[in-house]
């Protein structure tokens, strides 16, 4: 509230259309003056000057009484524009009844003259180029009917009104789309700044406390170590959240299997549900023992392909949990290339002995063969596994962006 006046400040909405509406209001007043001047100069030459004077009086009263209706989009309603266009068309057609055939054949101006263009321009600004085309076509038909045929000067004026009104209508539609895009960009920028501010505050307070609890808990051992581990997991989850990712609780294999059994059957050829951010599917795997590194922008894939790739990453991390030991750490790196998406899963475990994978397949344990390589093969991608005993294991998953 303004303390000096005691009034609340008004929010002013900037619009690219506002100057056009003001220009239209000025155009109607100026063209009314022009039409009146033409009538007064030629009033003795009309076949029925009284009828022409009556129409010019109605046109003057209508224009002056409704001048503020065209100052904004809210006031300039479609019924008003329809009435405005009706008055313009009536004046054009009435010219043939009140003027002499000689003057009409000589190319004299109609009663509303160029005032009729204001009605068409109002349609263009209000409803875009399509309605402008309809309005200008009606004005063109009325002018040709008044003239009795397609004379050169009449066709010239008709084409000029038709092209200019459609061009203005198209420009208005483009300006509206640009204004909406700008408003959306400003909202996103404001939200990003607010998120950055919150991230700074969280980093300076909550994240530092959680990191300290993790370090002290690990040093003290016992129950404090478990508390430190939980604090470390929450630190990673919160850090991912403030960085713009989506954090979901990681679930056990049994819970996922129960969800699959309860879910309705989906045909194998069901179309994907649109693009999906791969980061959101991989974020549940991040924790105290798993570090996720992904681009700052969304990594978009078809929903079905992204889900399969995330499942392959989960299978690789399950192998780390089972075979690399409880103290092993894993790193997941996501690379967003123009033609493909590459996800690398690396751990610091003891590695896989030579021939171990072939023995596992013969024994019926098909985790790597089916859960990882099989998924990527079905998607048209590839899975490369590199392991050196004593130096950990690295799984590189590549999936093309196109359909398999």
Give the SSE map:
Blueprint: H1 18-41, H2 49-65, H3 78-98, H4 101-105, H5 116-127, H6 129-147, H7 152-220, H8 223-242, H9 253-262, E1 275-277, H10 278-282, E2 290-293, E3 300-302, H11 303-323, E4 330-336, E5 340-347, H12 356-362, H13 367-378, E6 382-387, E7 393-400
Parallel strand pairs: 2-4
Antiparallel strand pairs: 1-3, 4-5, 5-7, 6-7
Helix pairs in contact: 1-2, 1-5, 2-3, 3-5, 3-6, 5-6, 5-7, 6-7, 7-8, 11-13
GO molecular function, one term: kinase activity
InterPro entries: DUF5931, HATPase_C_sf, HATPase_dom, Sensor_HK_TwoCompSys
Keywords: Kinase, Membrane, Transferase, Transmembrane, Transmembrane helix, Two-component regulatory system
Which features characterize this protein?
alpha+beta, 2 domains, two-stranded antiparallel sheet, Histidine kinase, transmembrane helix, DUF5931, two-component regulatory system, kinase activity
């Amino acid at each position: 509230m303004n303390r000096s006046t005691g009034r609340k400040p008004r929010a002013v909405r900037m619009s690219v259309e506002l100057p056009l509406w003001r220009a239209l209001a000025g155009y109607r007043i100026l063209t009314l003056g022009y039409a009146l001047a033409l009538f007064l100069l030629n009033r003795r030459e009309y076949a029925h000057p009284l009828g022409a004077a009556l129409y010019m009086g109605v046109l003057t009263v209508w224009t002056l009484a409704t001048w503020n209706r065209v100052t904004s989009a809210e006031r300039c309603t479609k019924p008003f524009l329809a009435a405005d266009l009706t008055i313009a068309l009536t004046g054009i057609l009435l010219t043939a009844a009140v003027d002499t055939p000689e003057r009409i054949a000589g190319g004299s101006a109609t009663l509303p003259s160029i005032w009729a263009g204001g009605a068409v321009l109002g349609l263009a600004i209000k409803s875009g180029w399509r309605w402008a085309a309809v309005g200008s076509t009606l004005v063109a038909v009325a002018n040709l009917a008044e003239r009795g045929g397609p004379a050169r000067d009449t066709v010239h004026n008709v084409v000029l009104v038709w092209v200019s009104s459609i061009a203005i209508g198209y420009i208005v539609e483009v300006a509206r789309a640009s204004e909406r895009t700008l408003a959306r960009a400003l909202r996103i920028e404001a939200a990003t700044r607010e998120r950055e501010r919150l991230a700074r505050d969280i980093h300076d307070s909550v994240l530092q406390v959680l990191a300290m609890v993790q370090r002290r808990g690990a040093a003290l051992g016992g129950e404090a170590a478990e508390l430190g581990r939980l604090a470390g997991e929450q630190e990673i989850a919160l850090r991912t959240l403030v960085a713009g990712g989506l954090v979901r609780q990681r679930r056990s294999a049994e819970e996922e299997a129960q969800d699959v059994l309860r879910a309705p059957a989906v045909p194998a050829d069901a179309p994907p549900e649109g693009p999906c951010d791969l980061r959101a599917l991989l974020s549940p795997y991040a924790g105290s023992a798993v570090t996720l590194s992904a681009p700052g922008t969304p990594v978009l894939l078809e929903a079905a392909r992204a889900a399969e790739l995330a499942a392959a990453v989960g299978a690789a991390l399950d192998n780390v949990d089972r075979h690399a030991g409880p103290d092993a750490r894993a790193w997941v790196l996501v690379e967003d290339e123009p033609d493909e998406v590459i996800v690398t899963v690396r751990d610091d475990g003891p590695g896989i002995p030579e021939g171990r994978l072939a023995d596992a397949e013969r024994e019926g344990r098909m985790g790597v063969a089916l859960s990882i390589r099989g998924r990527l093969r079905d998607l048209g991608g590839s899975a490369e596994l590199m392991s050196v005993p004593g130096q950990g294991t690295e799984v590189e998953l590549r999936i093309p962006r196109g359909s398999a």
